[in-house]
Amino acid sequence: LTVSARDGGGLPSATNAAVTVHILQTTSAPAIFERSRYAFSVPEDAPEDSLVGTVKAREPPGSSEVVSYRISSGDPQGRFCIDSQFGIIRIKKELDHETQSFVVLMVQSQLGSSPVYSSTQVNISVIDVNDNPPVFPTKSDKVIISLTQPPGTAVYIAHAEDKDSGLNGAITYSLASNQSNTFSVDPSLGVVSLTRTVFEDKQQEYILHIAAEDHGSPPLSSLLLLTVTVEEQKIDINDNSPSFISSPLCYVMEDAEVGFLVHRVAAKDPDKGRNGHISYHVISGNENRMFTLDKITGLLSTAQLLDREVQERYSLTVMALDDGSPALSAVQVITVLVLDVNDERPIFLQQLYETAVHENQDPGELVIKVEAVDRDAGQNSFLQYEILPGTGYEKFRMNSDTGELITAVSLDRETQEVFSIKGSPSRSSTALLYITVLDENDHSPLFEKNQYHISVREDVEEGTAILDLFASDKDDGLNGEVTYSLFDDTFGAFAIDSVTGSIITTRALDRETKSQYMFRAVASDCSTPLCGVTVLIQDVNDNAPKFEQSSYKASVWEGQTPKTDIIQIFATDIDSGLNGETEYSILSGNENATFLIDSARGTLATNTVLNHENTSSYRFVCRLVVQAADKGNPRLSATCIVRIQVVDVNDNAPIVHPPGEVEVSENALPGFTVTQVSATDADSSPALRFHFTDDRTSGIKFAIDQHTGVVTVLEPLDFEETAVYQLGI
User: Fold this and answer.
1) Quick check: 568 and 603 in contact, CB under 8 A?
2) Does domain 243-339 have CATH number 3.90.950.10?
3) Hey, what long-range contacts does 665-672 have (CB within 8 A, 24 or more apart)?
4) Which residues, 6+ apart, have CB-to-CB distance to 2 below 8 Å?
């Protein structure tokens, strides 16, 4: 094949391309990519060998050949490489967004040594990194101003350029040093202006450092040294800014040649001499340099060929700047509208249309609708369709407005089976239509069974074939070709090969989520018989038991008999059968086998009589680690913490510790402390009270504090009356 190229303006390519197509005698099927197009992005400063992305092609069912990958086109500089085995695309050479911001690779997959292959398109966006600082045309500049210039007067216009794009190329201007606060700079336009008069200053020269900083992260910047000299104005004072007198709107035909005059920008300035001389400059809107503006005459001309279908409106910000010192300026936004020229050929959405129509149908049967588009605007884009003369064309009619092709007569397949018709919009584009008259389809495909029942393990790998359906059709040709599809929703779990009828899994199965799938498969030629498929998912032990709580708390009174229930813990396992049956056991913390657990119900109980006083370990919480394990293979398990507090019972009497004989002087005054009695109780934290067992004698002479056990003299003592007292406490 010889292929030529022609652009929208009608210019042909300098050379043609020779394409050789080899028809291979092979039944091998290629490895098909999962996507027809991949999109990746990578920063331009990514180091060599950095990962860009991965493409994957799937081999045909039953194939044991290995898939290999290679980059076939789109990378003449060799900036990328691909792992031939795994399809991993990496950076091979340094990237530069400013040189190439978008790369389109064609990647091929080959199955073993097979001569057939498949292709996919890989679009790689090279993301801009802020690696270029703003740059001034010069490192320093000078300007002269008058003593009488008023505040707000523009003194100088600083302009820097940044090769980066987006925010990385957006520039903000500022004064890095402005000790006198005499000047300011517009952060967007870079216009340096006076903030006050310099008449009272005796300073004849100002040194300004103007910084241009981009918006990258981190931002980059550069400096311009501006020397401002103050002189006395003796003649005309530049006290008038230019004012535009030309229209802000102009038009140009899209087929205008390079250098075509589009508009004349004009401004006036009433000042005299150089103060009234005006120059014109494009500040923004001409980033693609589509126009040139003569700074002396103000003539705006085309610098490149225009294309309305690419861009139909341009907004140019133009500045008129006088030659005074300091210079004064005015800004106008000029809108350039690009007018349409009928320079675009209509293009059919398809160059070849193929369809079929049944024989013996009444005239007026819709055969096909063709469609073409024209990128021009207005009347230039209105299309009319017609059939070009050819064999059998009189048997069809074309709707000139809609592009619908209908039959003009009843067709007979035995007379003519295939028609080749050329259709055309009214200007210059053609498309070829192949129309086949079909035989009547009087047989439906038949499945071997009406209903299929199968069981599948839930851990089968994605892509596993679980059932091969087959339907036969007695018709010939297209009427006998059977394609398979799934009629019902399988929730994304299964797919069917439309050619072979093989049903495969498309994702991992989970019996606990869905244990059965019922759907219908369709074998179709032109009719659609159905068969039912029921897939039962067999359980695999892929879920561990799960406790309702990660930790439990319980308490039990001391002295309880063995086998007293304390607490029941519960774990669930969503698997089925033995995989979901749970057994409980105590892993650790059960010293002296004090507790036991029902392996089936998870009930914790005492195994011995508990005594809070005799076993020191029970004075605090007992911490048991309990396990719940299923009966699957392999067994899965989970653990939880159970904290059990042995609660004290008041089963021990206090024991008094007598101080023995105590002497006290007979002249001791009432309130005198004789002694203090102590007592202990084996129970935990008891509240003890003290009192005399016989108050008939002791209660007259002595008293005891019921809380502290302190014995004191209550009345005066007399040795001659009683020398010894026995107190029962």
Assistant:
1) yes
2) no
3) 665/717, 666/717, 666/718, 666/719, 667/716, 667/717, 668/713, 668/717, 669/713, 669/716, 670/712, 670/713, 670/714, 670/715, 670/716, 671/712, 671/713, 672/712, 672/713
4) 16, 17, 18, 19
Is the backbone of residue 463 left (phi > 0), alpha (psi -120 to 50) or beta? left
Q: Which of 151-160, 315-324, 417-426 has the lowest mean pLDDT?
A: 417-426
Nearest Cα neighbor of 585 from 577, 576, 593 is 593
Fold for the domain defined by 652-728: Immunoglobulin-like (2.60.40)
How many angstroms separate the most distant Cα atoms in the chain? 159
Phi-psi region of 87 (alpha: psi -120 to 50; beta: other; left: phi over 0): left
- 352 phi/psi in degrees, rounded to 5: -135, 125
Q: What is the mean pLDDT of residues 216-226?
A: 92
Residue 135 DSSP code: B
CB 206 within 8 A of CB 227: yes
Alpha-carbon distance 632 to 540, whole Å? 8
- Contact between 110 and 23 under an 8 Å Cβ cutoff? The reply is no
pLDDT value for 529:
64
The strand pairing partners of 552, in sequence order, are: 642
pLDDT band at 343 (very low <50, low <70, confident <90, very high): low
121 token code pair: 């398109």
Q: What is the rounded distance in angstroms from the CA atom of residue 205 to the CA atom of residue 417?
A: 95
* Class of residue 82 by CB neighbours under 10 A (exposed 0-12, middle 13-18, buried 19+): buried
Q: Does domain 347-438 have CATH number 2.60.40.60?
A: yes
> Nearest-5° angle of CA 327, CA 330, CA 334?
140
Helix (H) or strand (E) holding 174: strand 171-177
Instruction: Name the residue with higher pLDDT: 687 or 215.
Output: 215
Q: What is the pLDDT of residue 727?
A: 83
Does pTM top 0.70 for this prediction?
no
Please name the residues in contact with 301: beta carbons below 8 A apart, sequence gap of 6 or more.
259, 260, 261, 262, 291, 292, 293, 294
pLDDT tens digits, 167-195: 888 999 999 876 668 889 999 888 889 88
Side-chain-side CA neighbours of 173 within 13 Å: the count stands at: 23
d(CA 334, CA 264): 11
pLDDT tens-place string over residues 93-115: 999 998 888 999 999 999 888 88
The predicted pLDDT at position 426 comes to 46
Tokens of 225: 């040294």
* CA 130 to chain CA centroid, nearest Å: 23
* 3-class SS of residue 401: coil
For the domain 140-231, what is the CATH superfamily, name and number? Cadherins (2.60.40.60)
> pLDDT tens-digit profile of 549-597?
989 999 888 878 899 998 999 999 888 888 889 999 999 988 888 899 9
Predicted pLDDT of residue 510:
81
Residue 421: pLDDT band by 50, 70, 90 thresholds? low
**Secondary structure class of 378 (helix, strand, coil):** helix
Percent of the chain with pLDDT over 70: 89
**CATH number belonging to the domain at 23-127, selected among 2.60.120.10, 3.30.9.100, 2.60.40.60, 3.40.50.300:** 2.60.40.60
